[in-house]
Design brief:
Blueprint: H1 4-8, H2 11-28, H3 31-35, E1 38-47, E2 54-58, H4 62-73, E3 79-80, E4 88-92, E5 95-105, E6 109-118, E7 126-137, H5 161-170, E8 178-181, H6 185-196, E9 201-204, H7 212-215, H8 247-260, E10 264-266, E11 270-277, E12 282-288, E13 294-297, E14 301-304, E15 311-312, E16 327-329, E17 343-347, H9 351-362, E18 366-371, E19 376-379, H10 380-386, H11 398-406, H12 410-427, H13 429-437, H14 451-458, E20 462-465, H15 468-473, E21 478-481, E22 485-489, E23 492-495, E24 500-502, E25 505-508, E26 512-513, H16 516-523, H17 525-531, E27 537-538, E28 543-544, E29 556-558, H18 563-583
Parallel strand pairs: 1-7, 8-9, 8-14, 9-10, 14-29, 16-25, 17-18, 17-25, 18-21, 19-20
Antiparallel strand pairs: 1-2, 3-5, 4-5, 5-6, 6-7, 11-12, 12-13, 15-26, 22-23, 23-24, 27-28
Helix pairs in contact: 6-18, 10-12, 16-17
Length: 584
């Protein structure tokens, strides 16, 4: 709890008092006074506003970094934001804090941030965390819909809207500012944000139809987190939508979204690679078009949006090639309807593996899951949703929730998620005990931090239970450990105890390679070495590696992740690209 002096003040007054001390320290250049505004275990997360990148500074490194960046960015005094959610008392990772939204300006643009204050030295509050983020650029305000006052009377021979759209999307006589490779939700949202800043953007995707990256996945697939979490910018989901969105509904929405926002999108187009010309400061990007012809474009920026799960991973499993039946990756599995009465082995115990096994069992197949490593299992409700509780139910506007979400530094995320995971394990104890009795090997993430950190580091390794766990517990879906398999044989597997298990199909739900797997192939070894890690945690910056931020390779950017991550961070990526275009 806050001390008595702080409890006697209104929350805005407490925040204003802290802001006054912060602004005075920054204005005077007094680094010691600035450090006194923060607790010892403090964190400053900047989303492009002061540093031009996405980075977190912690502890003793915070004050000197903030002082230097405040000066170089032309930071003006921070003030309490009156037009957004007012300061509130919250408990984050067991710490009682006052959480407040602030606003500010720099030489580049306007900003918004979140500060969390807790007990200081008894005289004034100190900050446990501060986040600063860029909102708009002075030179490039967002493109907004006309209110009609500047509209001229249409001429009868004016270009037809559809003709104009086709000409714009053809790029017949120009190159895009930005080429987005990959037309899933991450690429589409990145393109939408870039267009809002007046950038000329083209999305290319190998699929035949917008949304096919969802539409063509296994038949039973639904999103496993609730609809409000997955909103896309500028066009909210209809209020009557289901809590969990089916894949085909989502695919159709992506198609409608692209049309509604007038995003330029080429389907059946393969990105074959690109080289960067230092003289022109542009890429030479090779494309193969739907008709088999080729086209070379010269964008200044390429956004790789081929997903965190980009290339199917078929690991080298000894003797698997001895199996005489079909072996398909989960990405190519079309559904269980064709396998009634057949014996199917599903390699893996992640989300796709569980969903496919459940679909097969529902269609009358005899299913065996093969576990190669421990995995986390959490109930889809309430367990999995507890990590995204900020988005569930009534509360502040989505933009404020996103800002608060983005304000949580990695160190605090780990503490919060450890607490949530402990709660979830207790809630799910009957299910987890049943899985242990069935031989399922469980883990709960690094340091017990749960599935979100698994996603940030591995892109998987967990399952939100929607019924498959009960099937395993009841024995309707069998489970064997890969370590107990001696070898694959033409008809199935031979176990180490000498018994045989016959299978008609093997589904390899063995995950995907990340985006860094494609960099060398598409951009060459020098660029791959220069860029380094993509996705996973960059410990030095305490952020995801090379995601939504400038990479060591000029003009090359990466996006991916969940719908909420795309919605929150793509605007910061677009702002960085716009800054580079303005500076060119």
């Amino acid at each position: 709890m806050l001390d008595a002096d702080l409890q006697d003040e209104t929350l805005p007054a407490v925040v204003e008092r802290w802001l006054k001390a912060l602004n005075e320290a920054l204005d005077s250049g007094n680094e010691a006074a600035l450090a006194a505004c923060f607790a010892d275990d403090c964190h400053w997360r900047d989303l492009v506003a002061l540093t031009g990148e996405i980075i977190t500074h912690s502890g003793a490194a915070l004050a000197p970094a903030l002082m230097a960046r405040a000066a170089s960015s032309g930071l003006q005094p921070l003030a309490l934001e009156q037009a957004r959610t007012p300061p509130q008392r919250q408990t984050r990772a067991g710490i009682a804090v006052i959480e407040a939204i602030v606003r500010f300006e720099t030489a580049a643009g306007t900003g918004a941030g979140v500060v969390r204050l807790h007990d200081g030295d008894g005289e004034r509050p100190t900050a446990y965390s501060l986040m600063t983020s860029l909102v708009t650029l002075h030179q490039a305000p967002p493109v907004r819909q006309s209110d009609g006052r500047d509209a001229a009377v249409p001429e009868i021979d004016a270009p037809n809207w559809l003709d104009a759209r086709r000409e714009e999307a053809a790029f017949s006589a120009r190159d895009p500012d930005v080429l987005v490779v990959g037309g899933g939700h991450a690429g589409i949202v990145a393109a939408a944000e870039a267009k809002q800043l007046g950038l000329d953007v083209l999305i290319v995707d190998r699929m035949a139809r917008i949304g096919d990256n969802w539409r063509l996945r296994y038949h039973s697939l639904k999103l496993h987190n609730q609809t409000p979490i997955n909103e896309m910018p500028y066009l909210p989901f209809p209020r009557m939508w289901p809590a969990y969105i089916p894949k085909d509904k989502l695919a159709n929405w992506l198609e409608a979204y692209v049309e509604a926002l007038e995003l330029n999108f080429w389907t059946r187009t393969s990105f074959e690679g690109a080289t960067f010309d230092e003289a022109t400061q542009r890429w030479s990007a090779a494309l193969t078009l739907a008709d088999g012809s080729t086209r070379t474009l010269a964008p200044a920026h390429i956004i790789m949006a081929a997903s965190v799960s980009s290339v199917p991973r078929m690991p080298e499993i000894p003797t698997l090639d001895a199996f005489a039946g079909p072996v398909v990756h989960s990405s190519a599995f079309e559904g269980g309807h064709a396998w009634k009465g057949k014996a199917v082995a599903v390699l893996g115990v992640g989300t796709s593996a569980h969903d496919i096994a459940q679909d097969l069992e529902a269609n009358g197949a005899n299913v065996t899951m093969v576990q190669r490593r421990p995995s986390m299992v959490v109930s889809v409700e309430p367990g999995a949703q507890m990590y995204d509780a900020i988005y569930i139910g009534d509360g502040p506007p989505l933009a404020d929730r996103d800002l608060v979400n983005a304000s949580v530094p990695m160190a605090l995320i780990k503490r919060v998620h450890k607490d949530i995971t402990d709660q979830v394990r207790e809630l799910d104890k009957p299910m987890l005990d049943g899985l242990k009795r069935a031989g399922f090997q469980l883990d709960f993430g690094e340091g017990g931090t749960g599935w979100p950190l698994k996603y940030r580091t591995r892109g998987g390794g967990y399952y939100f239970n929607i019924g498959c766990s009960e099937l395993i517990i009841d024995g309707r879906i069998k489970l064997i450990q890969y370590a107990d398999i001696a070898q694959f044989e033409p008809q199935g597997v031979r176990m180490r105890d000498g018994t045989e298990q016959r299978f008609d199909l093997v589904v390899a739900a063995t995950g995907y390679y990340g985006q860094d797997h494609m960099v060398e192939m598409l951009f060459g070894p020098q660029v791959a070495a220069r860029v380094g890690q993509v996705w996973g945690v960059d410990d030095a910056k305490q952020e995801l590696a090379n995601m939504w931020t400038r990479t060591p390779q000029q003009g090359l950017w990466f996006v991916g992740g969940a719908f909420s991550q795309a919605r929150i961070y793509s605007k910061y990526l677009a702002l960085q690209i716009k800054q580079d275009v303005l500076a060119a």
